[in-house]
Design brief:
The structure holds two protein chains of two kinds. Chain A is an all-beta fold. Chain A is 0% helix and 56% strand. Chain A is globular. Chain B is built from no helices and twelve strands. The chains are: A mainly beta, B mainly beta. Chains A and B meet through strand 4, strand 5 and strand 9 of A and strand 5 and strand 6 of B.
């Protein structure tokens, strides 16, 4: 089974802190994604990566950065956390060579910024 | 640009009743279509998908969806729901010319009552 893991299920941080959210996948997928999930807004893409050291902005990249030093790991960084970044963060991975185009999701990290 | 609209944010229904969750998309190109489900406190799981072929697709737990190209819809149906179907359901599309990025709808919460 494909497994996508995220470093924390719940996280509480203070305004202005630097926050790291880690995601690891074990299926050798090239593509990795970070989404933010908010009620009534669905999932919105923050950043994605098609390869190691490669990243592209999604729909809402402001206030976030990412790092992909190894194929299996994709990190989301909040340089200076703000209360409007309180949300559920979901990581996903997929293989561009797959015939199903399915994305596999981690369990999510619920981040609260106080 | 492509977009996905889920017309109902919440759908309450009694156990064993039929249900339909509506999804419409806008796209000038051909797309692949997906329904994902998110059970409480979990990540997203693929429920079913349409890539090509028969326009009626089914999941292993009794859901089905029909791709209607003329109406640009991909509604999800189940003839008899169970309490365990209580979850949030997301419709998503990938343009067939860009198989990396999913575009999600806002989500529909299905609340099955005893």
């Amino acid at each position: 089974d494909v497994k996508v893991t995220q470093s924390s299920r719940y996280l509480v941080k203070r305004t202005g802190e630097k926050v790291f959210l880690e995601c690891v996948q074990d299926m050798d997928h090239e593509n990795m994604f970070w989404y933010r999930q908010d009620p009534g807004l669905g999932l919105r893409l923050i950043y994605f990566s098609y390869d190691v050291k490669m990243k592209e902005k999604g729909d809402i990249p402001e206030g976030y950065s990412v790092s992909r030093e190894k194929k299996e790991r994709f990190s989301l960084i909040l340089e200076s956390a703000s209360t409007n970044q309180t949300s559920m963060y979901l990581c996903a991975s997929s293989s561009p060579g797959s015939s199903t185009y399915e994305q596999y999701f981690g369990p999510g990290t619920r981040l609260t910024v106080t | 640009a492509q977009s996905v609209t889920q017309l109902d944010s919440q759908v309450p229904v009694f156990e064993e009743a039929p249900v339909e969750l509506r999804c419409n998309y806008s796209s000038s190109v051909s797309v692949y279509l997906f329904w994902y489900v998110q059970y409480p406190n979990q990540g997203l799981q693929l429920l079913l998908k349409y890539l090509s072929g028969s326009t009626l697709v089914e999941s292993i737990n009794g859901f089905e969806a029909e791709f209607n190209k003329s109406q640009t819809s991909f509604h999800l149906r189940k003839p008899s729901v169970h309490i365990s179907d209580t979850a949030e359901y997301f419709c998503a599309v990938i343009p067939s010319s860009n198989t990396g990025k999913l575009i999600f709808g806002q989500g529909t919460t299905l609340q099955v009552k005893p």
